[in-house]
Write a structure and sequence with these properties.
single chain, Rossmann fold, seven-stranded mixed β-sheet, 8 helices, globular
Length: 331
């Protein structure tokens, strides 16, 4: 099988420029890992867009195939953990960063990176979730452990993005009142359709304020952007509230005092989906397949082919995508 070829989106470096195109690759070009998977679907994430444009903080060497998410069927597994034709999900770890990723029709990875596809989930649904869904699910674990729907509104920043939109839809499914925070006024109706009870302009959370505490408006928050927005959210949460941090698209810096923590008892919880323990991954994927699956699932994503991937990457970098973009490797 080593001489078998397959289609892959390959990013190449030429004179300090990075260009991606669909090329033929051979199975023997893949790393010598235990688990060979035929990929049926992948999804586009911001980290993939960075890898596709030469960000050396994500991908060190090129040519390279991005794609931090993949779902497909097992071709063979030398570890013995999975059976041939079994459906598996592979997300995070090093997939698509320095290991050829889900933008190719085959991947070869350590068996310890894979999770069995839950019975109540299709492959397409798995990639509507992907790393974004896993991250949102980990956030939901923290929110639901600490807060009940009757405790008050949950703010979600970056609400029109992948993690944000899934968080809005899943929190609403569980009965929480969700305030969607976004810089995209044009996505107001989209977010209300997902179940948000209100739309809040992001600019209102970026206003400079030297006050160590602001009016307590939210029971908790899921922040996907960081920076001034996260600082404002922490200072705007009611006593004993919980804020989950899972992104830094705006800034990795956090400027505030300790007062929200020592005067209101606020909990700030970080999410790391890349190295999340396998038992927690399995718990989250099972819940995504059943009780957390949004009722408005069809509105959450757009499906593309490999030939459309380059344009989708450009749109993501320009901030023109909403929700999730699913890549069909068989189309």
């Amino acid at each position: 099988m080593g001489d078998m070829t397959f289609k892959s989106y390959v990013v190449e470096e030429q004179e300090d420029q990075f260009e991606g195109s669909v090329k033929k690759k051979a199975i023997e070009d893949l790393p010598q890992n235990e688990l060979l998977v035929k990929v049926h679907y992948s999804s586009l994430n911001y980290k993939d867009a960075l890898s596709a444009t030469g960000n050396k903080g994500v991908t060190k060497s090129y040519p390279h195939t991005p794609g931090i998410d993949a779902v497909g069927t097992v071709v063979h597994d030398f570890s013995g953990k999975f059976q041939e034709h079994e459906a598996v999900i592979v997300t995070s770890y090093d997939l698509g960063m320095n290991t050829p990723g889900g933008f190719g029709q085959y991947i070869r990875v350590p068996a310890s990176w894979a999770v069995r596809l839950p019975d109540g989930m299709t492959m397409q649904e798995a990639m509507v979730f992907g790393t974004a869904g896993l991250t949102a699910g980990l956030a939901l674990l923290k929110i639901t452990e600490a807060l009940r729907p009757e405790d008050g509104r949950i703010a979600v920043s970056g609400a029109s993005g992948g993690v944000g939109s899934l968080s809005v839809a899943m929190l609403a499914k569980l009965g929480y009142s969700v305030a969607a925070v976004s810089s995209k006024e044009e996505e107001r109706e989209f977010l209300l359709t997902l179940g948000a009870c209100e739309f809040l302009p992001r600019k209102d959370f970026e206003k400079e304020s030297s006050s160590p505490l602001l009016k307590g408006e939210f029971a908790g928050a899921v922040d996907t952007v960081g920076g001034a927005v996260l600082s404002t959210l922490i200072r705007s949460v009611k006593p004993m509230g919980t804020v989950v941090s899972c992104g830094n698209a705006s800034s990795p810096k956090l400027e505030l005092t300790v007062y929200p923590f020592i005067l209101r008892g606020i909990s700030l919880v970080g999410i790391d989906s890349q190295h999340c323990p396998m038992d927690t991954r399995e718990t989250v994927w099972d819940r995504l397949a059943y009780q957390w699956k949004p009722d408005v699932f069809e509105t959450l994503y757009n499906e593309i082919t490999l030939d459309e991937l380059g344009n989708a990457i450009d749109l993501m970098l320009e901030g023109k995508l909403k929700g999730r973009t699913v890549l069909n490797l068989e189309a």
